[in-house]
Specification:
With 308 residues, the chain is of the alpha+beta class. The chain folds into 2 domains: 3-147, Methyltransferase, Cobalt-precorrin-4 Transmethylase, Domain 2, CATH 3.30.950; 169-305, no CATH class. Helix content is 30%, strand content 24%. The chain has 9 helices and 11 strands. The protein has helices at residues 3-12, 29-38, 64-76, 131-139, 143-149, 190-201, 204-215, 280-284, 292-305; strands spanning 20-23, 43-47, 84-89, 97-103, 119-122, 125-128, 169-178, 220-226, 234-242, 251-258, 269-278. The strands form 3 sheets. A 5-stranded antiparallel sheet has the order 7-11-10-9-8, with helices on one face. A hairpin with an 8-residue loop joins strand 9 (234-242) and strand 10 (251-258). Helix 7 (204-215) runs antiparallel to helix 9 (292-305). The protein is globular, with a radius of gyration of 23 Å. The chain starts with a helix and ends with a helix.
């Protein structure tokens, strides 16, 4: 975490949400937000960033704010727990810094209580869990098991009928986006699916894939479009590259969105995944040339798309 990253995040203008909060200085509300995020989906609290609409929202706090946060969490939370605090010095020489408070629910002893109540994060603000919500927090699986369940399937190469790999190259990435209970039952709107496809087709991922095809003289391309299993709560978009008019494309990319199935589930996440699959050896009898620089470009495009 660097000052440039912090400034980039602030410059985006992302409002406070389930997983993000700004604090201009230390206040007794910070331990409450720590507990709420730990009891929900985790998140970041940027201390030293004002919510005011000013030219430079990054104002910084003195180093003593670290001690205030540590003492506040240790004295207020039940059981005592302190999140990770990352100091990011400002360029000035007065010793001020941004404190990135990173709340990882997998490391907290959930539920975290304050005066017998369990704060939770709801619609970008702090609330209090009702009896049913508190029961779910108490009875849920160990945080480590929950975190382990939020992982993409391993990127294993597909096999043919003879049990041999049917592809040369596969890379997969993705993310889990927390959604609150009010959103878990809503299907994906058509305009949302179109916006997802447009974002992919105008992203560095599309350009990196196209340049890979063009570098080996195979410039035919079919941009991200619906293909395969699509339903109200599932979207599958396919990108294909290879010779014009080919019946089988040697280079493919698949983007998926999977919404939570059950209404009001204790842990509800929207899963987004993106994978690239190359079959050049099977299509042309030769491997797909991928220099290190081109591989770096592809990996950077895949990971960078999720933060844009």
């Amino acid at each position: 975490m660097t000052l440039e990253r912090v400034r980039e995040l602030v410059a985006i203008g992302q409002p406070e949400s389930l997983t993000l909060e700004y604090k201009e200085k230390y206040t007794p509300r910070i331990p409450v937000s720590v507990a709420a995020m730990a009891n929900s989906y985790g998140g970041l609290i940027l201390v030293g960033v004002t919510e005011s609409n000013v030219d430079d929202r990054v104002v910084g706090v003195p180093e003593s704010a670290i001690v205030q946060i540590v003492n506040g969490c240790h004295q207020t939370l039940e059981p005592p727990w302190v999140p990770e605090i990352i100091p990011v010095p400002l360029a000035e020489t007065d010793g001020r810094m941004i404190l990135v408070v990173r709340v990882d629910p997998a490391k907290a002893s959930r539920p975290l209580l304050i005066q017998g109540a369990a704060p939770i994060r709801l619609h970008g603000r702090n609330s209090v869990a009702d009896r049913a919500g508190l029961a779910r927090l108490i009875n849920e699986a160990a945080p480590q098991a929950v975190a382990a369940g939020l992982r993409l399937p391993p990127a294993d190469l597909p096999m043919d009928d003879q049990g041999k790999p049917s592809a040369d190259f596969l890379v997969r990435t993705g993310m889990f986006v927390p959604v609150d209970a009010a959103a878990t039952w809503r299907p994906l709107p058509e305009r949302g699916v179109h916006a997802f496809a447009d974002a992919l087709n105008n992203s560095p991922v599309h350009h990196a894939l196209f340049r890979w095809c063009a570098s080996i003289g195979e410039g035919g391309m079919n941009p991200f479009h619906r293909s395969g299993f699509n339903r109200a709560r599932r979207v599958r978009l396919l990108w294909q590259g290879g010779p014009d008019g080919a019946s089988a494309f040697p280079l493919e990319a698949v983007a998926r969105i999977d919404l939570p199935d059950s209404y009001g589930a204790p842990v509800s996440h929207l899963q987004v995944s993106l994978e690239v699959l190359a079959r050049f050896r099977h299509a042309f009898g030769r491997a797909a040339p991928l220099p290190v620089a081109r591989l770096h470009e592809l990996i950077d495009a895949l990971s960078g798309w999720f933060v844009r």
